[in-house]
Amino acid sequence: MPGLKNFLLKPIILAVMLLGLPLTGVLLAGYPVLHYLEFPPRTHFVQHAAFSWIAFAAYSLAILSVAVPIVIKGMRPTPVHEHPSPELYPLPWWGWLGLLLCLVSWILAWSRFSWFARFQPHTFSPLWFSFILVINSLCYRQTGRCLMLDRPGYFLLLFPTSAAFWWFFEYLNRFVQNWHYTGPELSSQQYFWYATLPFSTVLPAVLSTRQWLLSAGWIKQRFSNFIEFTIPCPRMLAGIILVISAGGLAGVGPFCGCHPC
Q: Which of 77-81, 115-119, 166-170, 203-207 has the highest mean pLDDT?
């Protein structure tokens, strides 16, 4: 089945690059590989650079150069008669349930009730599960369709895919140690489950929000004829970016911060 092979080939290549190249880099640099495979990971090798106004300004200008044209385009009024407002559907019952769960989750997450103290570390996931319900219900209200109902198999598959997707970020963070988590010491099993459940909500939340935004009438009105551009020689450019990315993944360990002895 050539179609299935082509479908699986890309994620396999991506996984091999993400997993293998950083380890290859630190191995070739002569650093002890096992220090980068601690589980749970601990942040004690990298001394991060001080705040830089130059770097801050460069990143800010890059972000503003992309964001400002979009904001200006979004704020321009559109004649109402050109795009009549679509008829809205009633909010489904599970949308109201999501709103209720979201309200309760917020209260429990940001309050410090003594009777709830043992469950406090687990409030992140209910917040995002309820958000996923709410955003799908809002999408349904606008169009009568939503990701959760239209493609239930795909929607459910997003949860384990999201968990694996975000574990790749955690893995790469072992080499740059840009962030760490505070709190009590956790066993390997505790750390895995405490992390995997929140990680599983990322892609369902992002893609459901994307569908909701794309179905919004004002988005269609203001951005249906937005700036279009074509990339010359897309295959060649993709190959160049792939080579640069491979070099970056291999160099992220040896050239980012301090290293274990």
A: 203-207
Q: Residue 19 corresponds to which tokens in the numbers above? A: 């997993």
The model carries a pTM of 0.80
* Tokens of residue 191, six digits: 């750390």
Answer whether 26's CB lies under 8 Å from 254's CB.
yes
Between CA 137 and CA 208 the distance in angstroms is 10
3-state secondary structure of 236: helix
Query: Which one-letter amino acid corresponds to residue 9?
Result: L
Residue 32: band (very low, low, confident or very high) from pLDDT cuts 50, 70, 90: confident
Give residue for tokens 């990680």: 199
Q: Which amino acid is at 132?
A: I
Phi and psi at 235, nearest 5°, equal -65, -45
Q: What is the DSSP string of 31-82?
A: --GGGGG-SS----S--PPPP-HHHHHHHHHHHHHHHHHHHHHHHS---GGG
Residue 167's contacts (CB-CB under 8 Å, 6 or more residues apart) are 195, 196, 199
Three-state DSSP at 126 gives helix
Q: Is the predicted pLDDT of residue 59 greater than 90, yes or no?
A: yes
Domain ranges of the chain: 17-48+97-255
The mean pLDDT of 31-44, rounded to a whole number, is: 78
- Of 242, 179, 172, residue with least CA distance to 22: 172
